[in-house]
Structure formats: structure tokens, C-alpha cells
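C-alpha cells in:
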């Protein structure tokens, strides 16, 4: 068995003709629910973009929503491979592992990380600890589950003047608002209780890093590589900047995405190596996005790692950074598919035919 986490190198290649795209469809929050409850889910336009791009390579593609009829729908479609972009149902920290678990149980190959890595990466505290154990720079963080944990706030603010308060296991900037930086124990407690009440999960306190925010795309397996990177800056300079829910929802008016040429070469190389190390440390597969902030000394630290990055060709960070680095959306999807096909010992000849046709 090689280092691609489950790929047998010498078995006969299996051909694939039928691929299902598994997803959760974005819907409006119900009465009494947070307005960002379904922020991680995809609109139909994103699902169709992924499906149409995969179909352009010559595959027969079906759409398979992960809802209450998911199991029977998947059985009826009988895919030979799955492109999984589903975030999972419910609020548990293992929700991103739901579809990988189902596919593993059914012996259906799929792109992306396995259930263990998905669950680990979604829990920001556990992933932070795992990366730190490998010597990868991360910010200080602490979990707050209940009232008994609040007694540690004065001590923390004796060490750090500013801390970011966010949910422990959410994505798409859910629970990260423009006012999520706390400057005192009292302010932090109010924001911690907001997380408890709004998301019914532990709050995470993380030291605020004042430097630039840079995000990196990684693709591949045994020798993963950087698929691009970009710097994320506000259009209007401000003393404290968070790439918050409000910023992402209004990115056209509030955010500037700057390509790798705006990052000093030495820093670019350092961040790229660190992102690849993090990808390998968590044993991720095929694709991921790794988010960095520079600390007061200019040292890049990982603030989040996402093995299930958004794939909207319009507004998702991974396609944007890939495009700013000279790539195309079709090229990104092709790269992810080919990485997964090679890992799963599937026949990659359709991609060769597609390249010849172009």
C-alpha cells in the first residue's frame, strides 16, 4: 500500500462512466433559526457548475442531494464514483464525515478526504492541537463549553490583549462577525454566550493575529502541491479586520483578492511549504484550502484548514485563488478528479482523451 492513504499501486485500473455529485442544497433559515444556519450549503448554481464541468470530461453525471432520501437515491443512481461536496446534516462536529462514512460503507470511491480527516479538520481545537504537535505554527486557542470555563478569561486577557471568539466547529465564517474580536473578559463572555445560544456548541477563543490573511489551495496526494494562493484584504483599511460572514456575503463591495505576485517570494514559499505540511499532517486527500494570518512578527500561522472547500466558480476562495494563479475552473475540477482517480486506482484515460480533443 502506498502513501496515498489506501491506494493499491499494482491492481488493474477500473473504468468509470457514471459519477454522482452529492451535495446539500442551500435553503432559507426557518423562524427562530440563525440566518446563517445553512451558510455552508451550496446553491443549485454551484452544484450544476461542478456537475457540468465533470460532464464535459465525458462522464454521465447525476445529482444526488443528501436529504432524507439520500440512501435510496444513491442506490438508484449506482454511481461508480462520487464527487462529494456535501457538508452534512445537523449540527454535530462529525457532520462532514456523514457522506464519506456512507460511501466507505458502500465501497463507492469518492474525491476528498475520508471521514476521520473530515471530522478532525472541522473541529478547530482538535485540528489546531494536531498541527501544533507536528511543529506547524498555529495561534493559541481555548475551548469554552460552559459557565465553569469562564473563570479562565481574566488570565487569558493577561496574556493576550485581543481574542477572536468563534464557534468551535463551523465553516464558511459562520459565527465570525465583524465584532467577534474581544478586548476584555466581559466582552469575551458576551460573545461566548452568543455562540452558545446561537449555535449550541462550544465557543473557541483564539488570539487575534494582526497581519495579512492569506489562503492557499492544495491538490494531490502522495506529493501534494500548491494550486494557488491569494491575499485577502479589505477595500477600506481598518485597524481590526476579520474575514467575517458579513465580508464574505458582500465580498464584491468589501474585499480585494490579490494574487500570489503581491506576496513576497520568501513568504510565499514559506506559506506554501507550511500548507503542504498541514495537508500531510492531517492526512487529507485530493484537495483542501489552508487559511493563514501573519502574527505581529510576520510569522504565518494556520487559522483554519478546510478539506471540503467551496467550489462555486464565482465566489468560493479556492476557485478564485486558482484563477488568480493562472488556472481555470475546469482545470481545477480536472486536477481534483485526477488526483482521486489515481488514488483509487481508477482509469484516467478519459482525461487524456479530453486533453487530446482540446
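Residues out:
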Amino acid at each position: 500500500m502506498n502513501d496515498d492513504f489506501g491506494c493499491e499501486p499494482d491492481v488493474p485500473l477500473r473504468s468509470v462512466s457514471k459519477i454522482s455529485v452529492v451535495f446539500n442544497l442551500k435553503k432559507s433559515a426557518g423562524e427562530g433559526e440563525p440566518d446563517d444556519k445553512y451558510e455552508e450549503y451550496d446553491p443549485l448554481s454551484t452544484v450544476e457548475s461542478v456537475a457540468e464541468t465533470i460532464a464535459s470530461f465525458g462522464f454521465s453525471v447525476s445529482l444526488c442531494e443528501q436529504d432524507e432520501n439520500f440512501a435510496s437515491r444513491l442506490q438508484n443512481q449506482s454511481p461508480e464514483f462520487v464527487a462529494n461536496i456535501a457538508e452534512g446534516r445537523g449540527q454535530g462536529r462529525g457532520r462532514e464525515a456523514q457522506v464519506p462514512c456512507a460511501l466507505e460503507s458502500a465501497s463507492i470511491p469518492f474525491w476528498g478526504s475520508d471521514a476521520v480527516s473530515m471530522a478532525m479538520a472541522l473541529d478547530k481545537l482538535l485540528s489546531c492541537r494536531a498541527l501544533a504537535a507536528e511543529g506547524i505554527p498555529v495561534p493559541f486557542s481555548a475551548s469554552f463549553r460552559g459557565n465553569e470555563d469562564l473563570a479562565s478569561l481574566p488570565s487569558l486577557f493577561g496574556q493576550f490583549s485581543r481574542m477572536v471568539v468563534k464557534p468551535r466547529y463551523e465553516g464558511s465564517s459562520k459565527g465570525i462577525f465583524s465584532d467577534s474580536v474581544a478586548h476584555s473578559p466581559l466582552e469575551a463572555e458576551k460573545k461566548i454566550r452568543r455562540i452558545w445560544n446561537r449555535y449550541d456548541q462550544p465557543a473557541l477563543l483564539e488570539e487575534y493575529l494582526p497581519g495579512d490573511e492569506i489562503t492557499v489551495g492544495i491538490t494531490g496526494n502522495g506529493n501534494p502541491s500548491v494550486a494557488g494562493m491569494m491575499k485577502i484584504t479589505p477595500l477600506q483599511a481598518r485597524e481590526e479586520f476579520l474575514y467575517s460572514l458579513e465580508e464574505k456575503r458582500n465580498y464584491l463591495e468589501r474585499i480585494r483578492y490579490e494574487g500570489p505576485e503581491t506576496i513576497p517570494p520568501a513568504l510565499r514559499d514559506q506559506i506554501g511549504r507550511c500548507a503542504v505540511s498541514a495537508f500531510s499532517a492531517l492526512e487529507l486527500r485530493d484537495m483542501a484550502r489552508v487559511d493563514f494570518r501573519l502574527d505581529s512578527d510576520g510569522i504565518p500561522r494556520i487559522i483554519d484548514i478546510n478539506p471540503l472547500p467551496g467550489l462555486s466558480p464565482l465566489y468560493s476562495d479556492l476557485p478564485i485563488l486558482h484563477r488568480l494563479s493562472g488556472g481555470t475552473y475546469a482545470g481545477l475540477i480536472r486536477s481534483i478528479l485526477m488526483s482521486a482517480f489515481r488514488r483509487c486506482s481508477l482509469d484516467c484515460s478519459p482525461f487524456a482523451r479530453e486533453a487530446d480533443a482540446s
